[in-house]
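Bug #77: duplicate submission created two jobs. Keeping one. Sequence:
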Amino acid sequence: PETRSKIFEPFFTTKEPGKGSGLGLAVVNDLLKKLSGFITVESELGQGSTFRVYLPAHVGEQQQPISLALPDLPTGNERVLTIDDEVMVSAFLGES
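Kept job's structure:
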């Protein structure tokens, strides 16, 4: 119960130091609030957790998508630098 009340706070983590930033659920919670939604959690020790995300249904006319015309950009020898402390993520991004 004590952990559950803190999981949406920035930088809260149950992982060992250096194993996670503790920002994931805080970012999700903040984004959902901005979208007029919310998140709930049910958790049982040793069994796992269930997170439910709720967003309001869209009511009204569907808006036309905005078309953005982008200028032609020179292409050729571009490089993208990615850095991640998770080896699996770095390996995946390196394959792209």
